[in-house]
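Chapter summary example.
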Amino acid sequence: MAACVESRAFIEQLTRLGLTSYEAKAYLGLTRRDSATAAQVARLSGVPRQRIYDVLASLVEKGLASTRPGNAVKYAATPPERAVGGLIARQREELDARGTMAKQLIEQLVPAFLAGQEHSDPLEYIEVLRDAGAINERFGELQAGTKDEILVFTKPPYATPAQENVEGLTVAKQHKACSVYEFSAFDDPAFVEGVRRFIEAGEEARFVPELPLKLVIIDETIVMFGMEDPVAGRSDLTIVVVEHPSLAKVLKVAFMAIWNEALTFDEAHERFVTLRKKTA
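The structure predicted for these 280 residues follows.
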């Protein structure tokens, strides 16, 4: 048992010096005899016979074994001090070669890297999104990154309905959150219940007959807005994210103008119920 453990340790150490596991096993097997045929080495080492000739040829090439001619070719292990020393020398040569290659690669890459640092897109603060999944993910990131306040024009179609926006509830509890909804929100009881939960979490909510566009303003710095294509006339939205404090402040003025004219939840709900009764 001890010899088996010792053999595994030798094999592991030899593989760390650059040999394959078969090569390490074959060399260890050779050290147990003055010389041995390929078939004998296969039995001693446990290397498959169909692989033993290739493995022994590789050991000879690497200087860890030599051949002894005769009726049957035999193989002998190179003394360990020479064999291991040769492996170390080979690794040093490979390391030196890699160092030289790395130095050349750095010299070639540095000019391109420095040139790239000087190039910037003049519109890199503008991001355009059209895929629904990407829009939802980006909104979630912006919402979660709120530090002070988030102002929202919530207009259908909803990327994430109020009753499903769990992350938004956390933001409403921790920061100033103001949302303006359309009266049509009252057509969906589940959505209305979601709005109630937001209000209970701390959101200030207002309602208007119709909003001009979907809009999010975060910390007077980042703006996210979406509009239908006026030419194609499709309901698909193109969402634009702009990180520009000046634009955010201007749009906040527009937001507050609509906010100040909007109705509270109770006022809007009362009007909705009254209109329902008139049309019933």
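To summarize the output: The two ends are 91 Å apart (CA to CA).
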